[in-house]
Here is the input.
Amino acid sequence: MSYVVLTSKERESLCDVFFQLKRWGERFPNARIEALTALRCLKAIHSNAIEDERVDRIFLQVLLHNAGISDKSLISDHYYNASRELRGQEEMLRWLEGKARERAEFSISLLIEMHRCVFGATMPDAAGRFRQAGVRIKGMRHRPPHHSQVQELLYQKFMGINERLFAIGPITRSNFLDVLSISAEVHYLVAAVPPFEDGNGRIARAAGDYAMLAHEFYYDVIMTDYRDGYLDALEECSLADSTPLLHFIEYSYLETLRRIEGFFQLLDTRRD
Here is the structure.
């Protein structure tokens, strides 16, 4: 096990930082939008970098901001496709933010639209369509279910996840970790099923974030530096127990929130 498990004191620190940022975000809504935007961009870059080690995140920043040469296909088809998938990822996350504001439940159609948004330009024949064959998950011993079982399994699991997620009321210190637990559960569910021929990792991480966005949390950005620990956590999970991933997410989320904490400390409170 190479991932870090927070101590009880560090877990208290996670709660402290979260609720301090929550208060600042409510007091300065424009700053909250700015922080959410920054994390969305960072999320898109690192989520793609975890899957594709050939295009370093330095170049993903170029691609996300449409800088450099205008025609990326002049470099390579792979680089060009990376640019389209990265922008599709960022667009999908924007769309998820809107669905979270609507309090839309997890559903088959939500998952399909997420996948179509990211991969519609690069694999039009497979984007938004559940796999029709077996798949192997790189780096995991877990054997995914037969493709004929995917839709029913997701439907059944989503029912329970929605019931628990949307039963949570205003966020307090007593239910804060419940949201992270459900985030880890749905994240692992999509990663372990997995429903699509390709691109399941990016969809799984976004699905986990959606559980958090539904309660006005910030994104959890799993940095590529944590890739080995993240994969170790996934490997130790099962459909009945996603606790190892929850432990990893607690660590990752504390690191994520600390990244934006300094930004809020820059705010000129005299403008309030």
The chain is about 60% helix and 0% strand. The chain has a mean pLDDT of 94.
